[in-house]
Amino acid sequence: MQKNNNTKPVISLKGLHKEFKTLNRREGLKGGLLDLFSRNYKTVKAVNGLSFDIQPGEIVGLLGPNGAGKSTAIKMMSGVLKPSGGEILVNGVIPYNNRIKNAQNIGVVFGQRSQLWWALPLVESLKLLKDIYMIEDKHYNQMFDLYKTILGASESENGGEECRLDSLLKKPVRQMSLGQRTLSDILASFLHNPKVVFLDEPTIGLDVMMKAKIRELVLELNRIRNTTVILTTHDIGDVDALCERVIIIDKGAILYDNSLDNLKSFFGAYRTLKIKYNKDEEWVDFLINEDESSVMDKLAEIEKTNKIADIKIEEISTESVIKKIYEGEVKSS
Amino acid sequence: MKIKKYTTILRAGMLDMFQWRMSLFITFLGNIVYLVVIYNLWQAIYASSPYDTVNGMTFTDTMLYLVLAMTIFNMTETYVVGSMGRHIQDGSMILNLIKPMEYRTITFFEILGADIISFCMIFVPTFIIVSIITGFAIPLGVNLLLFLPALLFARVISYYIDFFVGTICLYTESTWGINMAKEVLVLLMSGAVIPLAFFPDWLRQVAEFLPFQAIYNIPLQIMLGQVTTFETLPMFGVQLFWIGVMYVISGVFWKQSIKTITINGG
């Protein structure tokens, strides 16, 4: 499901492949010694035939278990890695062949790394980026005003100081909290008004307040500047708050590519029935696919053999749907 | 506006250097200690010789040469290889590759910025102290003016060599051993620990065909007034030649290598 089917996609992948050669290291001291003389490489397919189109202004969640090939895909889209096969177009250019031109049109945030100058106050880093990306004064000031409105607006309810632009600006990056640093990195990545921003696990290791702040910031920037956002995350809260569309990949291939609503309704036939046999006992879970048997049938079946003290019925969460897809329990079409 | 990209990174390198003022101070002190050691060592060497001039250099010449060489060493042999190695090992290289500039260019201007600070904070004070100790043996004239471009060119050559060596780390993923090997080779073959004039003929000839002597020997000979103004022109020629050669070699090597890399982490 893509909105605006008539517009040109901002990112387009066709049968993208990436293979790595990795060294099979032998175990132990003797193995290490043998490795010095003869090496045994194996080929790993990190990305294996990835195809999708992304329209301007979309926020797409790129999900998958660790090692699924998400980061490799992002590195190819940002022009850092050369694909082994297939086609990519980002803003109409092939990223790897035009790395510098492509870099001008994208922004990247890695939740575990900072692109800011470690020892310098944030404002100096932003000034540097202004010159590196050749941002015009007018646009730079506009972005500053925008940041001020977004970060200043909910100052009172979000504990003020921590996220306010003026207090961030003067602080050297190395003295920032992880949350402040991530926030700053996001500000930096949107500064040159890129068409696409890649957020690679932006909320990793952050507290609830900071996560909320970051989601709010990304959502606002996407709304106001119509920036396309590709988000990888393991936090389903991020997906629920930001993404309309999710692409789930595993072992380098797509498992699911559709809207988030669809993901839930598609698997909505699943419900969890929770039963307590005795008041003091723990809840016992039964996962029920209502297409096959109803909750009532199951209850009746249990009641034949057991006394039931209490029951609860829960809708399945996005998280458990995704977990099921990872585990290969349910096949999406 | 294109030039602004570069000056702005240069400025960041300078700002960054100021964050480490203790390190600047200690490097300066280290130079003074080195001066004392060199003074005593070479005094002994000259004392054992029947002549005041050994291999065309007086005691003062030699001392000036070595102390200033060490000062240039502290300034130029910075952390290019080390920081490239770190960027490669911890995967932060990717942050440089997503910027709309060449990595080699970004790093160069960052380092040049740091160099300008260490020139002012380390080289100039050491120069003044050495001048006073030797009773103003360094001629204060056009040689100093010619020294500045020679030093800049030397810096560019040494940067490209470092960048080349740093690129090797893409394959080995470790830097320490390679960097040590490089430093020993550079220090010896450039005449930074023993002036080239003291080399046996054959070794000096080898050294003269290598780029390393263009880093220390050329700027120092110019500064110490060992060559006439007219003679400096071919020296600049040699330096520019090596800049050209190393620019191409390090650029091609990097472009080829970056294709094969896998970026660590994530």
Compact overview of the structure:
The complex is a heterodimer of chains A (333) and B (266). Chain A is of the alpha/beta class.
Indicate the topology.
The complex is a heterodimer of chains A (333) and B (266).
Chain A: E1 11-23, H1 28-37, E2 41-54, E3 59-63, H2 70-77, E4 85-90, H3 99-105, E5 106-110, H4 122-132, H5 137-153, H6 165-169, H7 178-190, E6 196-200, H8 208-225, E7 228-232, H9 236-242, E8 245-250, E9 253-259, H10 260-266, E10 270-276, E11 284-289, H11 295-305, E12 310-315, H12 318-327
Parallel strand pairs in A: 3-7, 3-8, 5-6, 6-7
Antiparallel strand pairs in A: 1-2, 1-4, 8-9, 10-11, 10-12
Chain B: H1 2-18, H2 21-47, E1 53-54, E2 57-58, H3 59-76, H4 80-89, H5 93-97, H6 103-133, H7 142-172, H8 176-189, H9 201-208, H10 213-223, H11 229-260
Antiparallel strand pairs in B: 1-2
What does this structure look like?
The complex is a heterodimer of chains A (333) and B (266). With 333 residues, chain A is an alpha/beta fold. In chain A, 37% of the residues lie in helices and 26% in strands. Chain A has helices at 28-37, 70-77, 99-105, 122-132, 137-153, 165-169, 178-190, 208-225, 236-242, 260-266, 295-305, 318-327; strands at residues 11-23, 41-54, 59-63, 85-90, 106-110, 196-200, 228-232, 245-250, 253-259, 270-276, 284-289, 310-315. In chain A, a hairpin with a 7-residue loop joins strand 10 and strand 11. Chain A has a 6-stranded mixed beta sheet with strand order 5-6-7-3-8-9, sandwiched between helices. In chain A, strands 2-1-4 form a 3-stranded antiparallel beta sheet. The mean pLDDT of chain A is 83. Chain A is built from 12 helices and 12 strands. Chain B has helices at residues 2-18, 21-47, 59-76, 80-89, 93-97, 103-133, 142-172, 176-189, 201-208, 213-223, 229-260, and strands at 53-54, 57-58. In chain B, helix 2 packs antiparallel against helix 3 (59-76) and helix 4 (80-89) packs parallel to helix 7.
